[in-house]
């Protein structure tokens, strides 16, 4: 045993761990308020179990379980997309992890536009793609938790602005409640038995109702009259404007103490190369070395992961059209008859911006960055023919075509701990395909659980 601190007069006890010093000798310095800790001496065991701290009082000796000891670690998050930003926010606001130091390193940050940065191109709204299948349990829980957390955020705020109205909050954060209707052109697993397959109908979303036929939109195209739709539901969804929401999260994590370094990490030498590059960068910036790296690199993770894993990653191309005007509600029509299954009709109002997104497209394996003019024409005509956003007609101004690549992964998102790499613990969080926002809070909380479980 090694006695490191002894004080009865200072206001704080300073607890140093023998195995945790960096080159500057202060890596794991923790300040313990005296009013929480009436110990006369802190004795650290310099044994293998670095988490074990024995507290000796004048009366007795008590052993604090390792789970209650908070040793600061330096967590480097690779990325600044929705996965990275929400993970950072969750770590920085959770009692079990907020004592850690968090640094984000990313080539692209909010405000940047690149095909290698998916997050700014999202639609975006909460519309779960998770199914009722057993294998989707984790996805269901992430989506459900995110819906709940977003409701809390919108209704109670984040504590940053006093007396803020819902409308002000919506504009500040770029996220808001909107009514939503979903329709199906053909029966599928989701529509069976009057929507039994929609796992989120009970206990997850608010205001769920099965819509009567009289409320179904009717297509007006030449020679194609008739509803053609087989099922429809309404519920309250949450829509967001990606650029505002990303920027909101970005500013928030910095105000909570996160450091951000805008820089690419050399990805040509595999995972080890990423870690070596991260270490070098931190050294260059005179920051402490990293203990944990969370890989939130999205689709770009394929550039440094081992080949067998890199082959699991693929782009799912999306093309949407941004138009002026606020659609009154979100609309989605899937499984349209005579339409390829990779095309969906959706209308997503973008809170606080006076614009709306029309979509969409989900083409797996396509990395074409060019605009597909024919597809744009089909998206616009479909919205017109189904009459789903009539309020947008006549709004002055042109439109903008947006193209993004969802980070698809065979087998679904990878969120797990990998063994040590170069003496750094590695946690993966990528491959979120078309659900990176709507699962963001639930997934980040799972990452937090993984971090808590690391020694
Ligand atoms: C058209 C479209 C519509 C969508 N609609 C929705 C929707 O309505 N709801 C929803 O939930 N989701 C939606 N999505 C999906 C969602 O956008 C993605 O799941 C999400 O953005 C993925 O985020 P990410 O943080 O994992 O990756 P990204 O946003 O791609 O971020 C990756 C980060 O890693 C960094 N990076 C990678 N490699 C390196 C390196 N070597 N060095 C430094 N930095 C590096 C990048 O610079 C970037 O900051 C949509 C996507 C598209 C394209």
Automatic annotation (TrEMBL):
GO MF, one annotated term: FAD binding
Gene Ontology cellular-component terms for this entry are: cytoplasm
Give the Pfam families listed for this entry. Answer: DAO
Q: Name one GO biological process term.
A: D-amino acid catabolic process
The keyword Transcription regulation belongs to this UniProt entry's keyword annotation: no
Sequence similarity:
Belongs to the DAMOX/DASOX family.
Q: What is this protein called?
A: FAD dependent oxidoreductase domain-containing protein
Could you tell me which species this protein originates from?
Hymenoscyphus albidus
């Amino acid at each position: 045993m090694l006695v490191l601190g002894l004080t009865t007069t200072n206001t704080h006890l300073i607890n140093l761990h023998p195995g945790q010093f960096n080159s500057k000798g202060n890596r794991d310095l923790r300040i313990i308020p005296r009013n929480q800790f009436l110990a006369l001496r802190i004795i650290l065991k310099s044994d293998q179990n670095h988490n074990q701290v024995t507290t000796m009082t004048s009366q007795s000796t008590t052993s604090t379980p390792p789970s209650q000891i908070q040793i600061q670690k330096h967590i480097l998050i690779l990325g600044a997309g929705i996965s990275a930003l929400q993970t950072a926010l969750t770590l920085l606001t959770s009692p079990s992890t907020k004592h850690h130091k968090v640094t984000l390193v990313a080539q692209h940050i909010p405000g940047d536009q690149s095909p290698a940065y998916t997050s700014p191109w999202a639609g975006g709204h909460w519309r779960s793609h998770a199914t009722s299948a057993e294998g989707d349990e984790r996805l269901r829980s992430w989506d459900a938790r995110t819906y709940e957390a977003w409701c809390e955020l919108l209704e109670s705020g984040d504590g940053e602005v006093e007396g803020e109205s819902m409308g002000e909050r919506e504009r500040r954060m770029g996220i808001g409640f909107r009514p939503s209707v979903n329709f199906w052109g053909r029966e599928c697993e989701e529509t069976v038995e009057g929507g039994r397959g929609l796992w989120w109908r009970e206990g997850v979303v608010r205001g769920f109702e099965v819509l009567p036929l009289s409320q179904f939109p009717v297509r007006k195209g030449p020679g194609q009259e008739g509803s053609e739709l087989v099922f429809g539901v309404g519920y309250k969804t949450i829509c967001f404007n990606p650029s505002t929401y990303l920027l909101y999260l970005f500013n928030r994590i910095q105000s909570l103490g996160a450091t951000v370094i805008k820089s690419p990490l050399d990805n040509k030498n595999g995972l080890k190369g990423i870690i070596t590059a991260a270490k070098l960068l931190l050294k260059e910036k005179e920051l402490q070395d990293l203990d944990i790296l969370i890989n939130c690199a999205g689709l770009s993770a394929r550039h440094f992961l081992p080949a067998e894993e890199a082959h699991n990653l693929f782009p799912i191309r999306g093309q949407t059209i941004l138009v002026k005007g606020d659609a009154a509600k979100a609309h989605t029509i899937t499984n349209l008859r005579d339409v390829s299954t990779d095309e969906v009709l959706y209308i997503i109002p973008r809170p606080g911006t006076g614009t709306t997104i029309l979509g969409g497209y989900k083409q797996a394996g396509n990395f074409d960055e060019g605009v597909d003019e024919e597809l744009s024409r089909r998206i616009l005509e479909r919205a017109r023919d189904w009459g789903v956003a009539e309020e947008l007609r006549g709004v002055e101004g042109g439109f903008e075509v947006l193209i993004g690549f969802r980070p698809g992964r065979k087998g679904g998102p990878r969120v797990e701990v990998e063994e040590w790499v170069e003496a750094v613990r590695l946690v993966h969080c990528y491959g979120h395909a078309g659900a990176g926002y709507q699962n963001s809070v639930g997934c980040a909380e799972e990452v937090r659980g993984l971090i808590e479980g690391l020694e």
